[in-house]
Amino acid sequence: MVELKTDTSIDAMYEAGQVVGQALTAVRKAAAVGVSLLELDEVAHDVLRGAGAGSPFLGYRPSFAPTPFPAVLCTSVNDAIVHGVPTGYRLRDGDLVSADFGAELGGWVGDSAISFVVGRPRPDDLRLIETAERALAAGIEAAVVGNRIGDIAHAIGTVCRRAGYGIPDGFGGHGIGRRMHEDPPVPNEGRPGRGLPLRHGMVLAIEPMLIASGADEYHAAPDGWTLRTNDGSRAAHAEHTVAITDSGPRVLTAR
């Protein structure tokens, strides 16, 4: 069931979203050659503590997971697409990092992700990241009252496919509110004019995920969480929490 949020609730979700934005900004600033993924997780955790917020990631265990998630931040490096578990791995020059983070404040959740390169970037990586951001922007632009979920999915998928990138099958965005994952699912590819109508008060986490080689296949790493490309190609991820309103989409995790 899809819960429509009141304007007051959307304002409260904006406050949670700003904590998310602050954390991702801090993580991006701290990421450098030689910094470990666990150190980045601690940077994000410090932002939560300072804001008096909780983590919807820490201890989260969906049906597919063998263990609860052990961190507040997902750090997916190079061929990791999403759900990367922070480890003692130290960042190297040219690493492509996707950082995904959530915060819970006052009973409401925000969720967002960014991708960036540490050190000297490869032009192909910059193009991949820029396309992920364009796909996210296209999805947000389609998130208007009167459209349907399929319009968001089509907008994202069109940008990704035209650029020659793959889209991991079965993964996409989701509704969000009191819980991190709510109805409805928001695919990253689909047919326009299909699916649930968009109404004022719906809040969605829109999150394109791209695979550089154009392939869609992936597998779970031994940790049971990290999803990696089958062919070893790099991946990028971009995400915002977005409220559907009569005056247009409102990005609640804007940085």
TrEMBL record:
Native source species: Streptomyces ureilyticus
EC number: 3.4.11.18
Molecular-function GO term, any one: initiator methionyl aminopeptidase activity
Positions with a binding annotation for a divalent metal cation 1: D100, D111, E239
Gene label: map
Annotated residues for binding of substrate: H83, H181
CDD domains per record: MetAP1 (cd01086)
PANTHER family to which the protein is assigned, alphabetical: METHIONINE AMINOPEPTIDASE
Function: Removes the N-terminal methionine from nascent proteins. The N-terminal methionine is often cleaved when the second residue in the primary sequence is small and uncharged (Met-Ala-, Cys, Gly, Pro, Ser, Thr, or Val). Requires deformylation of the N(alpha)-formylated initiator methionine before it can be hydrolyzed.
UniProt-recorded name of the protein: Methionine aminopeptidase
Lineage of producing organism: Bacteria, Bacillati, Actinomycetota, Actinomycetes, Kitasatosporales
Domain of life: Bacteria
Chain residues that bind a divalent metal cation 2: D111, H174, E207, E239
Protein family according to the UniProt entry: Belongs to the peptidase M24A family. Methionine aminopeptidase type 1 subfamily.
Co-factor remark: Binds 2 divalent metal cations per subunit. Has a high-affinity and a low affinity metal-binding site. The true nature of the physiological cofactor is under debate. The enzyme is active with cobalt, zinc, manganese or divalent iron ions. Most likely, methionine aminopeptidases function as mononuclear Fe(2+)-metalloproteases under physiological conditions, and the catalytically relevant metal-binding site has been assigned to the histidine-containing high-affinity site.
NCBIfam families: met_pdase_I
